[in-house]
User: Which sequence fits this backbone?
């Protein structure tokens, strides 16, 4: 079997040192947050917000693995968030509250669902793949709404966060933040290793030209399916963390709207960068969190009535603003950072 040529095309330009430092700066900032949070005077709020950023950043990164490197546009990716969350809720309702049991169950069920649905979905291409992943996601959503024993449409509240080997480590917000950070960093490094491996080169080759990959002896379907399973397991882990962070699980975790948000986060950060997905999630959530306050400040010249309407309907500003960012910031946040570097003059 012939390996893939690793030579770079003539048009290839090495990434700037600034771009290469982005992951290091990003993770150092997240690691320093618990130390700096008390200085804000709202430590609990800051840690809660950044924890949610990391969890959805993990989910977006899992999608970027198949979207950015495999051109698989999954519109049902939030289903894996729901699987991870319901693994926590259902097991906890039956007295199994240990994360050392819940996490393997969440990963196993996510892998099984990804393997079955991926084996079917990957036999289609383009818009058909998008629609069939959407259909599978909605199927799981309606299944969750029908589970009356586990809250149905209203969802279910967790009595407490999961324990770790009997110890309530996740109960403390700082400890939970640290565990979430370790999960994010670990999955990021794992994803980087996958992309850089022979498996990752085949996956990228199948994205560019699947017929050529078959001609040199590879079967893209197998590699794409395995990538889909890995991506689903990563999102299942994010679902486990999200359920514990919110101490609540509901079918809303797996709606097509949430899948659309994850796709938007990936595009906003920059396709095929992994850490760009985390930046995209951070930008999306922080903008969503602070836009109403910014609109309130920006509307000081308006009457009180118009100002109140502007703040109440902040989503009417949020949507077009995100669309403008995507349209004019080609390559997302990572693209902007790449273009911001100074050009070197040849002497």
Assistant:
């Amino acid at each position: 079997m012939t390996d893939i040529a690793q030579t770079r095309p003539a048009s290839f330009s090495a990434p700037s040192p600034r771009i290469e430092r982005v992951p290091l700066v990003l993770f150092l900032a997240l690691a320093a947050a618990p130390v700096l949070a008390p200085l804000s005077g709202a430590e609990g709020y800051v840690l809660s917000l950044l924890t949610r950023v990391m969890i959805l950043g993990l989910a977006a990164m899992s999608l970027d693995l198949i979207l950015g490197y495999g051109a698989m546009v999954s519109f049902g990716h939030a289903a894996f968030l729901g699987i991870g969350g319901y693994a926590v809720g259902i097991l906890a309702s039956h007295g199994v509250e240990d994360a050392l049991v819940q996490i393997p169950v969440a990963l196993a069920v996510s892998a099984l669902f990804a393997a079955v649905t991926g084996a079917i979905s990957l036999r289609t291409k383009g818009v058909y793949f998008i629609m069939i992943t959407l259909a599978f996601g909605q199927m799981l959503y309606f299944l969750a709404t029908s589970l009356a024993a586990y809250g149905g449409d209203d969802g279910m509240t967790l009595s407490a966060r999961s324990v770790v080997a009997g110890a309530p480590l996740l109960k403390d917000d700082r400890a939970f933040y640290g565990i979430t950070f370790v999960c994010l960093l670990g999955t990021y490094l794992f994803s980087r290793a996958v992309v850089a491996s022979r498996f990752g080169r085949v996956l990228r080759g199948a994205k560019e030209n699947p017929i050529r990959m078959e001609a040199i002896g590879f079967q893209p379907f197998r590699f794409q399916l395995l990538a889909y399973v890995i991506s689903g397991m990563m999102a299942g882990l994010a679902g486990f963390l999200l359920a514990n962070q919110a101490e609540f699980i509901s079918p809303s975790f797996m709606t097509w709207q949430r899948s659309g948000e994850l796709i938007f986060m990936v595009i906003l950060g920059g396709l095929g960068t992994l850490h760009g997905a985390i930046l995209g999630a951070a930008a999306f959530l922080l903008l969503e969190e602070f836009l109403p306050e910014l609109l309130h400040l920006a509307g000081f010249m308006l009457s009180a009535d118009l100002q109140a309407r502007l703040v109440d309907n902040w989503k009417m500003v949020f949507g077009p603003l995100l669309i403008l960012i995507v349209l004019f910031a080609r390559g997302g946040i990572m693209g902007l950072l790449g273009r911001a570097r100074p050009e070197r003059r040849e002497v």
